[in-house]
Amino acid sequence: xxxxxxxxxxxxxxxxxxxxxxxxxxxxxxxxxxxxxxxxxxxxxxxxxxxxxxxxxxxxxxxxxxxxxxxxxxxxxxxxxxxxxxxxxxxxxxxxxxxxxxxxxxxxxxxxxxxxxxxxxxxxxxxxxxxxxxxxxxxxxxxxxxxxxxxxxxxxxxxxxxxxxxxxxxxxxxxxxxxxxxxxxxxxxxxxxxxxxxxxxxxxxxxxxxxxxxxxxxxxxxxxxxxxxxxxxxxxxxxxxxxxxxxxxxxxxxxxxxxxxxxxxxxxxxxxxxxxxxxxxxxxxxxxxxxxxxxxxxxxxxxxxxxxxxxxxxxxxxxxxxxxxxxxxxxxxxxxxxxxxxxxxxxxxxxxxxxxxxxxxxxxxxxxxxxxxxxxxxxxxxxxxxxxxxxxxxxxxxxxxxxx
Length: 404
Hints:
The protein is of the alpha+beta class. It has helices at residues 2-16, 18-55, 84-90, 127-131, 143-147, 157-163, 208-216, 234-248, 264-307, 309-317, 322-359, 367-393, 397-402, and strands spanning 60-65, 96-111, 114-123, 137-138, 152-155, 174-177, 180-187, 203-207, 223-228, 259-263. Helix 1 (2-16) packs across helix 11 (322-359), helix 2 runs antiparallel to helix 9 and helix 9 crosses helix 11.
């Protein structure tokens, strides 16, 4: 009951000085809103980067030729150090779930009178499971069509939208890729941009044998996607791949690798660490405004103590204890901060949505950021309100009654 009485006294004090209370609360409102917006921007960036990396494949290792070794370049800008035979050997390593080699080249896509430029990638059916990217219309090619060096294709959403009318069903249509005719087997759903900002939907998948024999006339591949059975085995598999390829490529013990391996789990961990640091930095900068608001509250509370010195003296004269006076002014300071905190939460959530709509950048308002903002605003009220409250409670009743 005493707490509610102190809260009622605090609210009456705030209503008695509306403009001053509003200006005091404003600092906390701005601080809380800024903290929520900055944390939501940082968490949104982390979520976006994580989604983009995961869209490349789960538990994925990517084996590339080493472009710094000065090996002979083949068609499509590839280096002739990795082959389909290497991919088949990697598939036999323990804990390897799937393997899909790739070979890419930019090509002109034709359908009737329309033309479009897209990336044409030769690969295997396992790329569907690795990238979790299955056709929304039709189907993917199979191993038999790889063996037959078939001229079949699966096209991305951007390619379909730019060479076909919206009412056309692409499945079964014949499209031209450079000087060859391909039958469309399926259309992939929209995937969006990759981590590097490249559009993933502007792609045509064809059997890797067709890309090597009919289109490019090469034996090498551009990269080998290797999906591990679980995240814990990725480091172990990476070491085994390194030893296997060094042996297959007859690299001397003291020689440099003619390939490199990118571990996307390590890339994801690094990206998450960077965005976490960025979020902490943004929240810290925004937190400075909360400290400024706290100093403003302490200043106003000191003024309030001076103005109400006689009131304090009367309360003490009729039996109020030091603890009661301390609690009254402390509750008033915390009420100011919490009021500003709740208003700041509303503005922070609205501000996050505005930033997202204007900048086109995703924002994530989490319960953690709201709880942190409210908790910090309450802590500011207690910290900066304690000194004025303590000063009020230590006033001499006689001197307080004589104060004019």
